[in-house]
Design brief:
Length: 195
């Protein structure tokens, strides 16, 4: 499984702006500093496909990327960034909720968490929310290159217990720097099982 073509299609804030197609979609969601844009760029082998910023909270729109002309990756606004106004946060919340509850083409949601820290209350809410709406949830723990190898098992246990993950649910360690976990995540993305 390899991504040979990745193209930014559009940014949207409401359903009327979403691309019209019959392809399946995989959404990426996580805290604003979890490394979503870096992960998308490393997955697609495109350094500037998703805009990477040193300032968390820059992704304020829902961004659609067409992959191999066969499915879409959808980058949702990051949550939990303290320096964003309450009004702005609520606006993002509505964009995300509207997309996740009403988008028929959506089949999977990839929840990104920081491998070095216990998931936040926002991460737990998002995980439960994804499950509540019946999507296949894939938990990807980013920045794992910053973990010592003997901390990996311990942190995996902490993350899975904090989220109350069930037996058999997918957990992947990922590094955008070393590309560890890339093949495993790609095989999941290409395997389209509808919700």
């Amino acid at each position: 499984m390899e991504i040979n073509q990745a193209e930014f299609i559009t940014s949207a804030v409401r359903p009327a702006q979403y691309p019209e197609h019959s392809l399946y979609e995989v959404a990426f969601v996580g805290r604003s500093n979890v490394g979503k844009s870096s992960l998308i760029n490393s997955l697609t082998n495109r350094r500037k496909l998703a805009k990477v910023s040193n300032t968390p909270g820059r992704t304020r729109l829902i961004n659609f990327f067409l992959i191999n002309e066969s499915f879409y990756l959808v980058d949702l606004p990051g949550y939990g960034y303290a320096k964003v106004s309450k009004t702005e946060k609520e606006k993002w919340g509505h964009y995300i909720e509207d997309y996740l509850t009403n988008r028929e083409e959506l089949t999977k949601v990839v929840l990104l968490v920081d491998s070095r820290h216990e998931p936040t209350s926002d991460d737990k809410l998002m995980y439960n929310w994804i499950k509540h709406y019946g999507y296949e949830v894939i938990v990807v723990a980013t920045k794992c290159d910053k973990l010592r190898s003997n901390d990996r098992q311990k942190n995996k246990k902490i993350i899975k217990e904090a989220l109350e993950m069930e037996e058999g649910e997918t957990f992947i360690y990922y590094s955008s720097t070393t590309r560890s976990g890339r093949e495993e995540l790609l095989s999941i993305l290409f395997n389209n099982s509808h919700k």
